[in-house]
Design a protein that fits this description.
The complex is a heterodimer of chains A (about 600) and B (about 110).
Chain A (H helix, E strand, L loop, with lengths): L2 E6 L4 E6 L9 H12 L13 E5 L13 E6 L6 E6 L3 H7 L2 E7 L9 E5 L5 E5 L8 H11 L6 E6 L1 H4 L7 E3 L8 E3 L4 H7 L2 E7 L11 H17 L1 H10 L4 H7 L16 H4 L1 H10 L19 E3 L5 E4 L3 H7 L8 H14 L3 H13 L8 H13 L2 H6 L3 H7 L7 E2 L2 E2 L9 H9 L14 H4 L13 H18 L6 H6 L1 H15 L5 H21 L11 H5 L13 H6 L4 H8 L3
Parallel strand pairs in A: 1-6, 7-12
Antiparallel strand pairs in A: 1-2, 3-4, 3-6, 4-5, 7-8, 9-10, 9-12, 10-11, 13-14, 15-16
Helix pairs in contact in A: 1-19, 1-22, 6-7, 6-21, 11-13, 12-14, 13-16, 17-19, 19-22, 22-25
Chain B lengths: L4 E6 L2 H8 L6 E4 L5 E2 H7 L7 E6 L2 E3 L4 E2 L4 E6 L6 H4 L2 H5 L12
Parallel strand pairs in B: 1-7
Antiparallel strand pairs in B: 1-2, 3-6, 4-5, 4-7
The chains are: A alpha+beta (about 600), B alpha+beta (about 110).
Chain lengths: ~600, ~110
C-alpha cells in the first residue's frame, strides 16, 4: 500500500490518504505531473498558495532495483511558467518509499512569511512540522550540519533542503538532497522549485529510514532474478560499467567540444580552447592526485557509481565532482578553463542553492553584457555571492539567464520557455535542439536522454547536421525518458538497455514482479506518453502555444564555428513531436 | 612543401593510455599522401581498436574505416560515450559500421 501525505502550510496539518487507484501504476515523474495537472490551476501564481510542491519517489524506489532510487519533484515552475519535474539522486527517494509514501504534497502558504519550518518524517511513521526560524538564511552545507545536530547519533536519514536563494524566491533556486554521506550535493535543480519551497516557508525535510526494510515486491523471486540480470548489464557495459565510473559524466567535454557543439562564451563559439583544463580526464587526474573519492553512488542501490568528490588543493572536500553540464556552464560558457575555479563556483551554487546550469548560463549572459569579463572567475564568484546575499544585483542574477539578459540588454539569450539551454549547442547537434525546443520542461537535456532506435523503432542514428528523422528520434527519447523518470531509474541505465536485449527485458520484468501486474514494453511506453500528456496539457492551459516550442532566433540565424551550422529543423517537424498527445488524453479521459 | 601529418587526440580511456606512454595532448602523426584509414592508424599506433567506437575527422563523426588524409584533425573516441549524443552525433552508427556515415572511397 502506498500513500499520499499532504502538508498544509496554512494550518500545519499533516494528513495521509491512500494513493488513488487511477494512479496505482504511477511513481516519480508520472505521479508529480498527474498531481500537478489535477490539483494545481494552470494559471495560478507559482509562488502563491495555489501552487503545490510534490515529492515522489520512483515506482521502484526502495526496492533492490539497481539505480532505481531517483526522486521527482514537481510543481508549477516560477521560471518557465509551465509544469516542472526536476529529478534528483540522493537518499530521499528510497527513504520516502520505505515509509510507504508515494507522494508528499506541500500545499498552501503559511500566514507568517518570515517563519521557517522543518518537516520531520520519522522511521516509526510519525510526521511532525517544527518551527525552524533559527535556520533562516543558512546555506545548504551549514544547514546539513544544523540538521545533524538535531538527530540521534545512530540515526540514518536523508535531507531535502533549501538554500538562501530559495528563501528569497529566486527563479533559479533548486532543492538540495543529501547523498549517502550526508552532503547536500544532489539537486532537483531546474525550474526554480527552491523558490516554490521557499514560498511555503519550508526550509528542510528530514526523512529517517533507520531500521526500515526494503519495500517488498509482489513476487520476490522474480524480482531478484530480474534485478540480477539488470545489475549484470549495468556493470559490464562499456558506458555504465567503465566510462561513467572512471570519468563521470564530464567524459563528454572533449567529445562535444570536438564535435563543435560545446557552447563557449554564451553560445558564440562551438569549441573551447581551454577544454583540456576542465575535461573529465583532467578532473579525474586532479581528483586522484588529491585523494578524492572517484567512484561512488549518489544513492544507495546505484551500481554505476559515477559520482565523485572533488577536493581542494589541500585535499579537503570541496564539492561533488561537478557533472558535465555544471563544468560546461560554469566553465566553457563563461570562458573559464580552470577546474579549481569551476569547482569553487559549483560549491557556491550548492551553498546558495541555485541550479548550476541556470547559474552558468546566466553568468555567460552577464559576461556577454560586458559588466564582467569572460574568463574572470573571481568576478563570477562574486556574482554568485551577491545572489546568496540578496543584493539588488544578486536578485536580478538569481532570477536566471533571461532576467539577466533583459536587465543588461544582451541580444543573445539562450533560453527556451524562459529556461537556460544546457551544454550542447543545437546547431551542430540538431537532435538535441528538437528536444530543447519541444520539451514540456523548457530547455532540458535530460528530457530526451535515453533509449532509441532498435528498442523504440524510431529511426536510429541520424545525421547530426541533417533534419530528417530528428523529430521522431526526439519524440521517442522524450517518451522513454519520461518512463524512466516515472520508474525512478537513473537515465544512465539507458546505455546497457540499448545494447543488451536482456537488460531492457528486465525492466518490465521488475515492474511486473514488484507490482504483481503484467507489464511489457508497450505498457511502459504508455507511462511515458501519459506523463508527457499531463505536462503538455498543463502547459497549454498555462498559455503555452507552438510559438513557445522554438529556439531563440539566433540559433536559426547565426552560424556557429567550426561547422558554420544553423538550426534548421522545420516548425512543422517540431510541432509533430507531441502528435500522440490528443489520443493519449482521450484514453486518459482528460482531453 | 605539402603537409604530411595529421593531428590526433585521444579521449577517455585512450587518453589514459596516452598519458601512460608519455605522449603529448595533441599528437602529430605522419601519414601517406594517399591517406590511411582510421583502423590502420589505430593499429599503427598500437591502440586497442576493439575499444574505439568511432572517430572525429575535422570535427565530424566518421566510422573507423574513414580515409584520413594529411592535414586532417582527428580524434579517436572509445566505447563509453554517455547520453543521447552517441546517437545524435552518429557515434553509435559509426561503431556498428552502418552506412549512415558514408565512407570516402573505402569499403
Amino acid at each position: 500500500m502506498r500513500d499520499i501525505v499532504r502538508l498544509d502550510m496554512a494550518t500545519g496539518q499533516v494528513t495521509r490518504e491512500p494513493l488513488p487507484e487511477k494512479w496505482a501504476r504511477y511513481g516519480g515523474r508520472a505521479l508529480t505531473s498527474a498531481i500537478v495537472f489535477s490539483e494545481v490551476p494552470a494559471d495560478t501564481d507559482p509562488l502563491g498558495p495555489g501552487n503545490k510542491l510534490v515529492f515522489a519517489p520512483g515506482l521502484l524506489a526502495g526496492t533492490p532495483a539497481p539505480n532505481g532510487g531517483r526522486l521527482s519533484v514537481g510543481a508549477k515552475s516560477p521560471l518557465t511558467g509551465g509544469i516542472k519535474e526536476s529529478n534528483s539522486g540522493g537518499q530521499a527517494a528510497n527513504a520516502l518509499a520505505k515509509l510507504g509514501i508515494a507522494a508528499l504534497i506541500v500545499e498552501g502558504k503559511p500566514a507568517d512569511p518570515g517563519a521557517r519550518w522543518a518537516l520531520v518524517l520519522e522511521a516509526d511513521g510519525s510526521i511532525r512540522l517544527e518551527r525552524a526560524d533559527e535556520w533562516a538564511g543558512l546555506e545548504n552545507y551549514a544547514l546539513a550540519d544544523a540538521v545533524k545536530a538535531t538527530r540521534p547519533a545512530d540515526d540514518r536519514y536523508a535531507t531535502i533542503t533549501n538554500g538562501p536563494a530559495g528563501e528569497m524566491l529566486m527563479k533559479s533556486a533548486g532543492i538540495a538532497v543529501s547523498d549517502p554521506h550526508g552532503y547536500p550535493n544532489r539537486f532537483a535543480g531546474r525550474g526554480g522549485l527552491g523558490a516554490v519551497m521557499g514560498s511555503k516557508g519550508l526550509k528542510a525535510i528530514i526523512v529517517s529510514d533507520k531500521g526500515l526494510k526494503m519495500v517488498e515486491s509482489a513476487d520476490k523471486q522474480a524480482m531478484m532474478a530480474a534485478v540480477r540480470t539488470f545489475a549484470n548489464a549495468l556493470t559490464t557495459h562499456a558506458v555504465s560499467g567503465t566510462a561513467l565510473p572512471t570519468y563521470g559524466t564530464n567524459v563528454l567535454a572533449n567529445i562535444i567540444n570536438e564535435a563543435g557543439g560545446y557552447p563557449t562564451r554564451n553560445f558564440s563559439e562551438g569549441r573551447f580552447e581551454g577544454v583540456e583544463g576542465i575535461s573529465g580526464e583532467t578532473m579525474r587526474e586532479i581528483t586522484v592526485q588529491r585523494g578524492g573519492n572517484v567512484k561512488h553512488g549518489c544513492h544507495t542501490g546505484c551500481v554505476i557509481q559515477c559520482s565523485r568528490y572533488y577536493m581542494d588543493k589541500d585535499g579537503h572536500y570541496k564539492t561533488k565532482g561537478p557533472e558535465y553540464e555544471s563544468v560546461w556552464s560554469l566553465g566553457a560558457d563563461c570562458g573559464i578553463g580552470d577546474m579549481d575555479a569551476v569547482a569553487e563556483l559549483d560549491r557556491k551554487c550548492g551553498e546558495v542553492g541555485i541550479d548550476t546550469i541556470e547559474a552558468g548560463v546566466m553568468l555567460g549572459v552577464y559576461m556577454d553584457s560586458g559588466e564582467i569579463a569572460f574568463g574572470d572567475a573571481r568576478a563570477a564568484l562574486d556574482a554568485l555571492d551577491q545572489i546568496g546575499r540578496g543584493t539588488e544585483l544578486g536578485r536580478i542574477l538569481g532570477d536566471g539567464a533571461e532576467a539577466t539578459g533583459i536587465a543588461f540588454g544582451v541580444k543573445n539569450i539562450p533560453v527556451v520557455k524562459h529556461q537556460g539551454l544546457p551544454a550542447y549547442d543545437p546547431r551542430p547537434i540538431q537532435g538535441i535542439g528538437v528536444t530543447y525546443a519541444t520539451s514540456t520542461m523548457g530547455a532540458d537535456h535530460t528530457a530526451g536522454y535515453t533509449i532509441t532506435s532498435n528498442v523504440l523503432a524510431v529511426g536510429g542514428t541520424v545525421d547530426p547536421f541533417g533534419t530528417e528523422g530528428q523529430a521522431a528520434l526526439s519524440q521517442g527519447l522524450q517518451i522513454a525518458t519520461a518512463m524512466l523518470d516515472t520508474l525512478g531509474f537513473c537515465i544512465f541505465v539507458a546505455f546497457p538497455v540499448l545494447d543488451i536485449p536482456e537488460a531492457f527485458g528486465a525492466i518490465p520484468e521488475m515492474v511486473a514482479a514488484h507490482t504483481g501486474q503484467a507489464s511489457d514494453v508497450d505498457a511502459l511506453m504508455d507511462l511515458g506518453k501519459e506523463t508527457l500528456t499531463y505536462e503538455r496539457l498543463f502547459n497549454e492551459r498555462a498559455g503555452f502555444t507552438p510559438a513557445d516550442d522554438r529556439l531563440p532566433k539566433f540559433f536559426y540565424e547565426e552560424p556557429l564555428s567550426p561547422h558554420g551550422a544553423v538550426f534548421s529543423v522545420s516548425d512543422a517537424d517540431l510541432d509533430s513531436v507531441h502528435a500522440f498527445v490528443p489520443e493519449t488524453a482521450q484514453r486518459l479521459g482528460i482531453a | 612543401m605539402a603537409e604530411s601529418t595529421i593531428t590526433l587526440r585521444l579521449f577517455g580511456a585512450l587518453h589514459a593510455l596516452r598519458r601512460e606512454r608519455g605522449l603529448p595532448t595533441v599528437l602529430k602523426v605522419d601519414v601517406p599522401e594517399s591517406g590511411i584509414t582510421g583502423i590502420e592508424l589505430a593499429e599503427s599506433l598500437e591502440l586497442p581498436v576493439e575499444q574505439i567506437e568511432g572517430l572525429f575527422c575535422n570535427h565530424t563523426v566518421r566510422p573507423l574505416r574513414w580515409m584520413l588524409r594529411p592535414g586532417d584533425h582527428v580524434a579517436f573516441v572509445p566505447l563509453g560515450t554517455p547520453g543521447p549524443h552517441r546517437f545524435f552525433l552518429g557515434l553509435y552508427g559509426a561503431g556498428r559500421g552502418s552506412d549512415v556515415n558514408s565512407t570516402n572511397g573505402t569499403s
